[in-house]
Amino acid sequence: MISKPVERVLMGLAALLLLALMAVTGVDVVGRYLLNAPLSGAFELTELLLGALVFVALPLVSRAGAHVEVDLLTELLPRSVNRVLGVFAALVSAAVLGFFAWRLIVLGMGQLADGSRSVSLDVPFAPFAFLGAAACILSAIYGLKWGQKDD
C-alpha cells in the first residue's frame, strides 16, 4: 500500500513542525517578557505551523487507527456486525476526506491564482491548502486499509 518511508517522512515533518512551534513560542515569550520585544509575526507563524502540523499528523493517526471513537454498543453486537460497521465507517471517512481533499485543491488553486498571502509575514497560502489535500488523500487511503483489518 503506502510504504514505511512515507510514514517516516511524515513523522519527521511532524517533529520538525512541533519543534518550530516550540521555538517560535519560546522566542516570542522570552522576547515579550524579558526583552520587551515580541517576535514579529509570531501569532501568524503559530497559526500556519499548527495548521501544517495537524495536516501532517492526520495520515499518521489514520494509519494507526487512532481516531476518537465512541463505541457504546459495539460489545453487544456480533463480531461480524462490528466488521461491517468498521468497513462502513472507513468508507464514510474516506468519502469525507476525499471531499475535503477536493475542496482544498480547489481552494489552493484559487489561492495560487489570486496570489493569496498572509498579512504580516507575506507567506503564500496555497502550499498549505495543497499540503492539506495531500494529507486528506493519504488519510483516506490509510483509513480504508485500517477499516479492512481484522480485530
From TrEMBL:
<comment type="subunit">
    <text>The complex comprises the extracytoplasmic solute receptor protein and the two transmembrane proteins.</text>
</comment>
<dbReference type="InterPro" id="IPR055348">
    <property type="entry name" value="DctQ"/>
</dbReference>
<feature type="domain" description="Tripartite ATP-independent periplasmic transporters DctQ component">
    <location>
        <begin position="21"/>
        <end position="143"/>
    </location>
</feature>
<feature type="transmembrane region" description="Helical">
    <location>
        <begin position="83"/>
        <end position="105"/>
    </location>
</feature>
<keyword id="KW-0812">Transmembrane</keyword>
<comment type="similarity">
    <text>Belongs to the TRAP transporter small permease family.</text>
</comment>
<keyword id="KW-0997">Cell inner membrane</keyword>
<keyword id="KW-1133">Transmembrane helix</keyword>
<dbReference type="InterPro" id="IPR007387">
    <property type="entry name" value="TRAP_DctQ"/>
</dbReference>
<keyword id="KW-0813">Transport</keyword>
<dbReference type="GO" id="GO:0005886">
    <property type="term" value="C:plasma membrane"/>
</dbReference>
<dbReference type="GO" id="GO:0022857">
    <property type="term" value="F:transmembrane transporter activity"/>
</dbReference>
<feature type="transmembrane region" description="Helical">
    <location>
        <begin position="125"/>
        <end position="144"/>
    </location>
</feature>
<protein>
    <recommendedName>
        <fullName>TRAP transporter small permease protein</fullName>
    </recommendedName>
</protein>
<keyword id="KW-0472">Membrane</keyword>
<feature type="transmembrane region" description="Helical">
    <location>
        <begin position="42"/>
        <end position="62"/>
    </location>
</feature>
<dbReference type="GO" id="GO:0015740">
    <property type="term" value="P:C4-dicarboxylate transport"/>
</dbReference>
<comment type="function">
    <text>Part of the tripartite ATP-independent periplasmic (TRAP) transport system.</text>
</comment>
<keyword id="KW-1003">Cell membrane</keyword>
<dbReference type="Pfam" id="PF04290">
    <property type="entry name" value="DctQ"/>
</dbReference>
